[in-house]
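This follows on from our talk about sequence and fold. Please put the record directly below this note.
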Amino acid sequence: MSEENPYRVFVTHVFQDDEDYQRVFEYLESRDQFFYLTSSDLAKMPESGGLEAMKAELREQIKPAEVVIMPITTFETNPDLVRFQMDVAEAFAKPILGVKSFGDTVAIQKELIDRCADIIEWNERTMIEAIKRLGRNEETAQWEVIDFDLD
């Protein structure tokens, strides 16, 4: 992974800003030497054409992604539109990475468990490792090091 070959991600959205949507990018930005591009763009809400125009725009946003990241709470906001995004991801053979609700306060529906390639907690290292594994089959095998003061 380098700046010349960043990971391409799409974060599910319903064309409105949301805390968990923003939190995904905060976590991705917090990791040194992790380069990514997002194809998600809340500002590209079609002005006309209704639901079909929204669906067409979402297809275009999902198409270049390697991994679709879905904060579970986004599903609760608009299940039909998020379900459509999952359908598109599956049609384009894009793995879906579910991210539990922040603080783990929302129960995860069986449909989401079945459709996500992985569901993770809010942890930047876990998120990056899942993106690498799902997007490019890269195993990072990183270990946490804990120093004990023996004095």
Observations:
- The chain has one domain: 7-136.
- Residues 7-136 form a domain with the Rossmann fold fold (CATH 3.40.50.9200).
- Helices lie at 19-29, 50-62, 72-77, 79-91, 110-115, 124-136.
